[in-house]
Amino acid sequence: MTEQTDYFDDRIADAILHGSPYERLRVRRNSLFDQRISTKLAWQSVVLLALSLVGPITLGYSESVAALFPGGTPLTSSPIILMPGVLVLLLEAGAAAGHVAVAATILTNESDLSTRRMRQLLSVEEMASFYGLIGGALLLTITVAFFLLGYAGVETIQQYTTAGAQGPFDTSGTGLSVLAVSTVAFVGSVMLFTASRLLDTRMR
Fold first, then answer.
1. Mean pLDDT of 56-74
2. Distance of CA 78 to the CA centre of its chain
3. Is 30 contained in some domain?
4. Backbone φ and ψ of 176, nearest 5°
5. At what angle do helices 115-129 and 21-28 cross, to 10 degrees?
6. Domain count, the chain
7. 47 or 7: which carries more pLDDT confidence?
8. Is 153 left (phi over 0), alpha (psi -120 to 50) or beta?
9. H-type helices in 60-165, by residue range?
10. Keywords for this entry (predicted)?
11. pTM for this one?
12. Residues paired with 171 in a beta bridge
């Protein structure tokens, strides 16, 4: 057996022998998202932490690239390329709410939950995990890639801009600035990581 296989076997055996009924049901579903809620919240916090880097990324732009942003100040502008990042915030907030709601239900009523009800909660948890981890990660990749494009220089950026069309750094019209999204993402990352540590100790 490989070390990875041994790890998964040990985790499953630990859940079956020492875990709650909900944890035992989760590992038996053989799902892509069979990790503990605390673990998935920690992963979500990493997604948000990565998103918060878009602010610092803009600080390294050259003057010519910075001039492409509305007002010539990337940090306080609201460019079109920021919109996937806004969607990341919404997805992670919704996914976190789903994860926490399931955890709260388990912590307060697990002894009274039927197997059918626990399966329903697992379905909610898996949906939250899919949108928060898969959807969030894809949109994060798009966002960071667009912002890193700024380091390629004005000439490269212009190759991706159709004449007469809106460019990636034109204003989005939403009023949401790079600084605001970056700050909210960082605060959200800290909150989710804190929640993951609390749940890790409560849901053992």
1. 91
2. 21
3. no
4. -85, 115
5. 60
6. 1
7. 47
8. left
9. 63-66, 83-109, 115-129, 136-148, 154-159
10. Membrane, Transmembrane, Transmembrane helix
11. 0.85
12. 79
Contact of 190 with 49, CB cutoff 8 Å: no
Cβ atoms 67, 167 nearer than 8 A: no
Tokens read off for 32: 């892509």
Helix (H/G/I), strand (E/B), else coil: 63: helix
What's the pLDDT at 30?
74
Tell me the C-alpha distance between 117 and 99, whole Å: 16
Chain mean position to CA 57: 18
Domain range for 122: 36-202
**pLDDT at position 162:** 59
Per the structure block, which two tokens stand in for 49? 């932490």
Q: What is the pLDDT of residue 55?
A: 95
Query: Residue 91 is which amino acid?
Result: L
φ, ψ (nearest 5 deg) of residue 199: -70, -30
